[in-house]
Specification:
With about 425 residues, the chain is mainly α. About 70% of the residues lie in helices and about 0% in strands.
Length: about 425
Amino acid sequence: MASPSPSRPRDPTPAPVRDRAAADARPPAAPRSRLRSARRRLTGLLPLAGLLLTAALWGRSLPTIGAAAVGLVLAGAVLLAVTYAEAIAHRVGEPFGTLTLAVAVTVIEVGLIVSLSISDPAKSATLARDTVFAAVMIVCNGIVGMALVINARATRLVRFNEQGARALLGTVLTLATLSLVMPTFTSSSVGPTYTGTQLAFAAVASATVYGMFVFIQTVRHRWMFLYDTEPDLDPTPIPAPEPAAAGDDGDQADGAGSSGHGEASLAGLVVPILRLLAALTVVVGLAKTLSDPIEGAVAWAGAPPSFVGVVIALLVLAPESLAAFRAAARGEMQTSLNLALGSGLASIGLTIPAVAIASIWLAGPIELGLGSKEIVLLAATAVISALTFGSGRATVLQATHHLAVFAAFIFLALVP
């Protein structure tokens, strides 16, 4: 006969006290849910508030304190834009996420260039050239160099897909040569300009090459722009990922709330894309608002007026820069390169056709050709980038090469 099991000692604490203690030990679910809901509502209202502020400040002169406050708002808009871009990338997967951010920033930047050229004809002659060249130097040297440094801190040896990197670089250099170098050597017009027919050809060529690149990146050879951890990449199309778990927009904007990457439906992407466009509009609009204070600071420092374009380009490219650095810190170097080089590619591929169309209303020639100093910097960027992306592996030494060229670009822009 089995012996009876010993009885458990009885807890002398009264039952109501035990129940109250257990309830106190449980996390407060309701306040946490209300806090998450309030954060989602606040995140959704921030782009609208930024747009209202941008509209209120447009065309106004700002004092020093006001410019500093607008600079803080601009920094917040940059962080917000990166958050929305990462939420979209989480839903649609790569390389669609990086392409969305690059194209969105460039479209708004092109709109700013065209509007400034029409409203201020005195600056329209060289505005497109200076902006596009500054964007190319910033993304191909500054962003790429810093991303390599960030990634190399953790892995020592940076790895990426050399086919995708070389495809990006080759397309950037092709468009840069047709749009920024060839006008310097043509003889049908005076100065570093294109004739109307030549500008139309450059615009059609830029749009065609960029369109073909987007097709290759997103449809035909998508595998080239994704990094596989295996030593040998399988050059076959990567199957579409499984649909992501359904979640609310606020959780996605916070970077949490759903698991896995997936092809998102159009209905689920409308709100995040609209928020991203609103945040990017705030970034570009506030950068334009700060242009006059920046011009005053540049003049006070004794730098040439052309350096203002470099500062504006740095501000406009801040969302892509931060997104590229965060991707490199996560070990996603190919994503970082897609952001950096894809941004430079979109800048040329979309700006030149837009400028060609706007030239119908602009008075005077549009100078697209670079000077000898800028051509040397572009050639150095081409050679160094070809060496960096040739093997799919890089170290801090290659990062130093890019950062040295970027430092030379900034220094020569300050001291021409």
